[in-house]
Known about the structure:
Layout: H1 2-10, E1 15-16, H2 26-41, H3 43-50, H4 60-74, E2 83-86, H5 89-100, E3 102-103, E4 109-117, E5 133-137, E6 139-144, E7 147-151, E8 163-169, H6 181-194, E9 198-201, E10 224-229, E11 241-244, H7 247-260, H8 267-278, H9 280-308, E12 315-317, E13 324-328, H10 336-345, E14 348-349, E15 351-352, E16 370-374, H11 379-391
Parallel strand pairs: 1-14, 4-5, 4-8, 7-12, 8-9, 9-10
Antiparallel strand pairs: 2-11, 3-4, 6-7, 10-11, 12-13, 13-16, 15-16
Helix pairs in contact: 4-8, 9-11
Amino acid sequence: MDDLGQAMDGRSDMRMLGGGNPAHIPEVNEIWRRRSAEILANGAELEETLANYDTPQGKHAFLDSLAGLLNREFGWNLNAKNIAVTNGSQMAFFLLLNLLSGTGSDGSKNRVLFPLCPEYIGYADQTIENGMLITRPAKIELTRPGFFKYNVDFENLDVSSDISALCISRPTNPTGNVLTDQEVARLAGIAGEKDIPFIIDNAYGAPFPNILFRDVKPYWDKHVILSMSLSKLGLPSVRTGIVVADESIIEAVSACNAVISLSNGSLGQVLVRPLIESGDILRLSNEVIRPFYEDRSIAAVTSLQEAFGDDIPYRIHESEGSIFLWLWLPELPISSAELYERLKARAVLVVSGHYFFYGLDCPWAHADECLRLSYAQDPVKFREAATIMDEGK
Length: 393
């Protein structure tokens, strides 16, 4: 994060393929400018946004609007008691992972299992007690020349009695993987049989921002804790995370909010609520945001293919969603961490893949052969970065 911040502030020549900042999409930014002007012009709405504490659960009008949207879109039987707002989805996971893991009063250990490793780096250091997150290595499927895909290895997925929850991201950061409907249903079935929560991180998913390039269905039931966010809509700075869950989970998250931050920030909820009520958030996601990122994904893959050619062995994870490409270099003679440093010295900032392989029972050499590349920024810069990566082979 220090490298990312310094690069953003100090080096205009840096090719920023690291970090998770969303793109600045002109049509999206225009909506935020319009909504900001509307709030400023309406004294009552401005005061509602800035001058009052919200409840620890969030603004009631926002919660009602979102429950209505999710019910209309997916047929879920939700109400405002099933939804809580947090100060960012990162905060949501800090609360959830610590609520669901740790040492009990009887000395027993409760751990959260991530069944598809590599998985999002932001989970790795969330628990107050060490060793509470465990992961299982994915099965690697070679899908077509130059590409591959991770799948859940159900044959080796041992959900022991100390597992208190399952957790996945869909689409997955870092790889752009989207678990199939069958994989999700099977994991949900396991969670139901064990009577444990199944956490689905939906920060890039449907109905917003819907950065999904595969035809899959969002999933929720009484065992599911669904995390959502306004960040990838283009609002990362308003820090608005959303938790959709059983009422008991929402009550616990709200109580934690009250202790840790007293209440939630209002700006994101007020900015977006009219778009939720009108359904415009669906048009924005489906007609603007998703096509924008899909075009950038295609351009990024083409840039890597043209730069690398047949010079070096490489495979790209099938780009199924999110804002990242995951590059596997199976004959890399150095570690991905060392490659990261070499690329940074040449004004290319990526993220070394080894950070995403936490919680494994034993080392996996594959962890040192991968890079995460963001394609959210300027495609010209991405193409330049791909050329530099090839030159350094």
